[in-house]
Amino acid sequence: MERTIRYNTKGIKILSKNGKFSEFKGVSKSENKVHLLELKLEDGENLICTFGHKILVKEDFFLEAQVLCVGDTIISNGLPVKIVSIETKDKDYVYDALEVAENHEYVTNSVVSHNCEFLGSSNTLISGSKLSIMIQQCKNRIIRENNLDLYETPKEDRIYTIVVDVAEGQNKDYSAFSIIDVTEIPYRQVGKYRDNKISPMLFPSIIYNVAKRFNDAYVLVEINSIGLQVANILFEEFFYENLLKVDTKSPQGIGQHITGGYKKGIHLGVKTSTAIKRIGCANLKTLIESDKLIVFDDDTVNELKSFTAKNESFAAEQGRNDDLTMTLVLFSWLSSQAYFREMVSNNIRSHLQDETLRVVDDVMTVRVQKSLKPIGDPFSLNWKNDYDWEALEAESEVDVQGDRWFTVDGNR
After folding, report:
1. What is the spatial distance between Cα 410 and Cα 31, in angstroms, rounded to a whole number?
2. Contact 151, 139 (CB under 8 A)
3. What's the pLDDT at 219?
4. pLDDT at 304 over 50
5. What is the rounded average pLDDT of the residues 120-128?
6. In the chain, which segments carry CATH 2.170.16.10?
7. 3-state class of 377 per DSSP?
8. What is the DSSP letter of 383?
């Protein structure tokens, strides 16, 4: 059914099942008139709705209006009430509340209704159908510590990146960061921090502690304004080595890019220019819609729902925030950087090499136990005479260059 949407920009609230008034995204109107049903209840209430409208019939269980019959009970005014008649009505336009904060459940004419569908406009960066899937992919946090939500605990063999967006800490925008596991594709958002009261002077210590906890994560800070102060504190006071640096003086004219060097034009973070945001938004759309970036945090998904086209860019709708979204936009720009990809690849290769060496050490230990045949004093200075060399030669190997290799005791 085609719909038009009017967004709730005035902060109006709607009555929800728990008796409280809750926020909702807006109201949709059908483009065409549709068939309707009228349900009359024994308590005197009535409800006119579409055939597919979902109605609460018992605790946490909804049925579409078209499957209900006279004599069935639904919940009205919090109590089970019988339906005394069902009639079809003339076609008319219908309206529906979108994304009520309390589990998409709201009260109309004393009856609890439900709309679980996300009806994003075509102007959202991420398609409405993908946002619907993302809602289902959100996970329950396993740890919550002072505005830090974790969906996975740090693992020793994983590589993490933290992308930081800094606000002034005056109850307006949020200071935020996303923790992303970049060990392999798909990348995974495994945690997030968000606080609109944290001072920029205190924020660096939180970033530092979380980054150290996540295997000395690579940290990228957005430095357009107060973020530069945060990056400087991380670098100069905490001596954090894995702070990603950005070169702004490229002779090739490629714009800002991640670098490992120190020279004129090197910044301790990235400035969100029009070009950076355009690249980041395009990459973010590709990563999410091709399942190469998995987002577990519901706050982030909720921001993405209202991250819509504005002029020639994307931004949060009026009255909404996009601080967590911007951490993903900047990460998506970062993920396309050759230096970053090589750095992560080298780190992965290093982990694989360490694992290979551990396996080799285990094998060598087994071979030493089987191969060494001491026949004299193991602490003698004349150690060459203390082994059965004929037996050792029989178990030795000759490489392609003709050199003979023996298994030796690592303690000698």
Report:
1. 80
2. yes
3. 96
4. yes
5. 72
6. 3-114
7. coil
8. G
Token duo for residue 11 = 């902060």
C-alpha to C-alpha distance for 315 and 321, rounded to whole angstroms: 9
Residue 238 has pLDDT above 90, yes or no: yes
What's the pLDDT tens digit per position in 196-206?
Answer: 899 999 999 99
| Mean of pLDDT over the chain | 80
The DSSP-derived string for 123-159 is TBSS-HHHHHHHHHH----SEEETTEEESS---TT--
Round to whole Å and give the CA distance between 336 and 254: 13
Residue 405 pLDDT: 67
Please provide residue 21's backbone torsions phi and psi, each rounded to the nearest 5 degrees: -90, 130
Over 60: is that where the pLDDT of 355 sits? no
Is the CB of residue 223 less than 8 Å from the CB of residue 231? Answer: yes
Residues 6 or more apart from 364 whose CB is under 8 A from it? 407, 410
* CATH 3.30.420.240 domain residues, the chain: 128-342
The answer to whether 112 and 106 are in contact (CB under 8 A) is: yes
Residue 367's pLDDT band (boundaries 50, 70, 90)? very low
| Best CATH choice for the domain 128-342 from the list 3.90.79.10, 3.40.50.300, 3.30.420.240, 3.40.630.10 | 3.30.420.240
DSSP letters for 268-283? SSB---HHHHHHHHHH
Structure confidence at residue 293 as a pLDDT band (50, 70, 90):
very high
Q: Which of 120, 139, 157 is nearest to 25 (CA)?
A: 120
10-14, 74-78, 403-407: range with highest mean pLDDT: 74-78
Q: Distance (Å, rounded) from C-alpha 119 to C-alpha 128?
A: 6
The architecture that CATH gives domain 3-114 is Beta Complex (2.170)
- 207, 178 Cβ separation under 8 angstroms: no
